[in-house]
Specification:
Number of helices: 7
Bound molecules: calcium ion
Shape: globular
CATH superfamily: EF-hand
Number of domains: 1
CATH class: Mainly Alpha
Oligomer: single chain
């Protein structure tokens, strides 16, 4: 590809993303489902019911996710346990998002689990999982106050409709 064509393509993708920004109210059904799912997750882990997730609550949520996957309760997620929990996740996601999107989401979690295995012994220890999740969750905490609000609990690519943003 020559340089000029590259620049043209680049500027095209920039201008389309600006356009997308202007249409904040229009989000896809898929995004709406993801937002609903995340707000359900906040509700599930928001122990003190203040509508946001603080460090303790996030740690608890990571801990209970780990415990649910650690079938033999030895404090490690073996490749078999990880595979089983991914299979379970996939069937849950399929019910909400359909085959293709479920596959994408599960693959993302799969690669996360691989990255979490810091000493690369094939098992994810609880410590490795907590450390990884802390870093992962810190990505959501855009203003760095250690608390994840409903507005922050989403990927950068997920645009929020303004109506959703006002809802508390
Ligand atoms: Ca809270
Ligand atoms: Ca285990
Ligand atoms: Ca490991």
């Amino acid at each position: 590809m020559n340089k000029t064509l590259m620049m043209v393509l680049l500027s095209f993708s920039i201008s389309t993303s600006v356009l997308a920004d202007d249409k904040k109210l229009e989000i896809s059904e898929y995004q709406q489902k993801k937002l609903d799912q995340r707000s359900g997750e906040i509700k599930a882990y928001d122990v003190n019911k203040d509508g946001v997730l603080d460090a303790t609550e996030l740690q608890k949520s990571a801990g209970s996710k780990f415990d649910a996957a650690d079938i033999n309760k030895d404090g490690f997620l073996s490749p078999e346990e990880t595979a089983a929990s991914l299979a379970k996740l996939k069937s849950q996601k399929q019910a909400t998002f359909g085959e293709d999107d479920a596959k994408t989401q599960v693959n993302r979690v799969k690669s996360r689990m691989k990255n979490a295995d810091e000493n690369e012994d094939g098992n994810v220890s609880k410590q490795e999982y907590q450390t990884y999740m802390n870093n992962h969750q810190a990505n959501f905490d855009r203003n760095g106050d250690g608390i994840i609000s409903k507005d922050e609990y989403r990927a950068d690519s997920e645009k929020l409709p303004s109506s959703y943003r006002k809802k508390k």
